[in-house]
Write a structure and sequence with these properties.
- InterPro entries: AhpC/TSA (IPR000866), Thioredoxin-like_sf (IPR036249), Thioredoxin_domain (IPR013766), TPX (IPR002065), Tpx_Peroxidase_subfamily (IPR050455).
- GO terms for molecular function: thioredoxin peroxidase activity.
- The protein has helices at about 55-70, 85-95, 110-115, 150-160; strands at about 1-5, 10, 25-30, 35, 45-50, 75-80, 100-105, 115-120, 125, 125-130, 135-140.
- With about 160 residues, the chain is α+β, with helices and mostly antiparallel strands.
- The protein has one domain: Glutaredoxin (3-Layer(aba) Sandwich), CATH 3.40.30.10.
- The strands form four sheets. The protein has a five-stranded mixed sheet. The protein has a two-stranded antiparallel ribbon with strand order 1-2. It has a two-stranded antiparallel ribbon with strand order 3-4.
- The longest helix has 13 residues, at about 55-70.
Length: about 160
């Protein structure tokens, strides 16, 4: 798959899941080194917010936007995923005073399962997934331009549906 970064084309490795697919399983560590699995949230909707680097403006905006919505989405868990280090994510949360579920994909487990790895920049592609209560993908957006925010409204609507 090809996306752009500030207008310059770059490749995203792998096969990306589609709406209606069973969401690929993953298990990652949170900021306290607890193991978190997608299966932990069966019976709830899960909004997965994926970003390349928490220490950039657009990633910051995306994460804060979904954090601010967390309380208004019934029966929905928001998960934030990047391959930033645990320390980077902890530091960002402390600076922003945000207590969100942040998972770090150190070994590209999630990146490979969802086909989101950008080898040129060694980051995950900015994307949003909504998994329904049965574990199927209800919404998928792989943002076509890395430097822009995702389209929030359809993701939110998928959580409310």
């Amino acid at each position: 798959m090809e996306i752009t970064r500030k207008g310059v084309p770059t490749q995203v490795e792998g096969v990306q899941p589609k709406v209606g697919d069973v969401a690929p399983k993953f298990t990652l560590k949170d900021l306290n080194n607890n193991t978190v699995s997608l299966d932990d949230f069966l019976g709830k909707k899960v909004l997965i917010s994926v970003f390349p680097d928490i220490n950039t403006r657009v990633c910051d905006l995306q994460t804060v936007h979904f954090f601010n919505l967390a309380g208004s989405l019934e029966n929905t868990q928001i998960i934030n995923i990047s391959n930033n280090t645990q320390d980077d994510l902890k530091s960002w949360c402390a600076t922003k005073n945000v207590d969100a579920l942040m998972l770090h994909d150190d070994d590209k487990t999630f990146a490979n399962a969802y086909g989101l790895w950008i080898p040129e920049f060694e980051v995950l592609a900015r994307s949003v997934f909504v998994v329904d209560e049965e574990g199927k993908l209800a919404y998928v957006e792989i943002v076509p331009e890395m430097a822009t925010e995702p389209n929030y409204e359809p993701a939110i609507n998928a959580c409310k549906a």
